[in-house]
Design brief:
Blueprint lengths: L9 H4 L3 H4 L3 E6 L15 H11 L4 E6 L5 H7 L4 E5 L9 E2 L4 E10 L17 E4 L2 H4 L1 H9 L4 E4 L2 H9 L5 E5 H10 L9 E4 L4 E8 L2 H17 L1 H10 L3
Parallel strand pairs: 1-2, 1-3, 6-7, 6-8
Antiparallel strand pairs: 3-10, 4-10, 5-8, 5-9, 5-10
Helix pairs in contact: 3-9, 3-10
Length: 245
């Protein structure tokens, strides 16, 4: 008589709880961009907002980090539940876009003792500038006209290095998001970073939404954002990363 022996293997025993947990959403997020996304500890303004928003309806969130330009492609390939950041005007037949929930604001920053009067984009003419990567795609025609005549314009991917270059006086102006600048200054208060500076608000604000596979989750997100704003949680998150104590 033959006997059949069944061997168990850990690969069959281990089941990813997220695969069977209807209360956990898989959300596509970008690569680290403090203070919006801080992947090392799963924090950041956008991640905290998402987490606390869905906590109002007892849902958990698990983030999958991919380059910003690949979030939509990865969303379909990995069959995830949503995307952290899309433009409010974004259209896709299989995605439901939320109301705007976060605002980005690019600014120019210069050191105070340079006495620059920068009240519009054209005021940047003749100055050495370091901008964020692909700034030319986002900052409009006037900006592109100004830098087309510049012999000292650069773009760098790591925005925190821009701030270093400003305070080391290796450039006259940097262009970056105001919240990235505020976060850096909150965590770097001494030495060369104590030099006074000016922030020039010469670019328009840009609002962003989230997108979801299910209309129900989009509606829960919109409702949850309203709730955490009313409760003060939304402002608490912003203050946590941006306000100097």
């Amino acid at each position: 008589m033959m006997s059949i022996v069944l061997f168990s293997h850990p690969i069959f025993a281990e089941v990813d709880n997220r695969a069977i947990d209807k209360y956990t959403l898989e959300i596509m997020a970008g690569l680290p961009k403090p203070p919006f996304i801080i992947e090392e500890n799963g924090e950041g303004i956008e991640l905290d907002i998402f987490r606390d928003t869905f906590a109002t309806v007892n849902k958990n969130v698990h983030f999958i980090h991919v380059p910003f330009g690949r979030t939509t492609m990865s969303f379909h390939r990995l069959n995830s539940d949503g995307i952290v950041t899309v433009l409010p005007s974004y259209k896709h037949p299989s995605l439901f876009v939320s109301k705007p929930y976060i605002t980005y604001q690019n600014v120019a920053v210069s050191l105070l003792d340079n006495n620059f009067e920068i009240d519009n984009v054209k005021s940047l003419a003749g100055k050495s500038i370091i901008a964020f990567q692909n700034a030319k795609k986002y900052l409009g025609d006037d900006f592109n006209k100004v830098i087309s005549y510049s012999i000292n314009y650069r773009e760098i991917a790591e925005q925190l290095k821009q701030i270093d270059m400003l305070f080391l006086r290796r450039t006259e102006v940097i262009i970056l998001d105001i919240n990235i600048f505020k976060y850096f200054m909150k965590t770097h208060r001494s030495g060369r970073y104590s030099q006074p500076y000016n922030v020039h608000y010469i670019f328009n604000e840009r609002q962003y939404s989230a997108a979801f596979k299910l209309e129900q989750n989009r509606d829960l997100f919109d409702k949850g954002i309203k709730t955490i704003k009313e409760q003060g949680t939304y402002q608490f998150i912003l203050d946590k990363y941006l306000t100097q104590q």
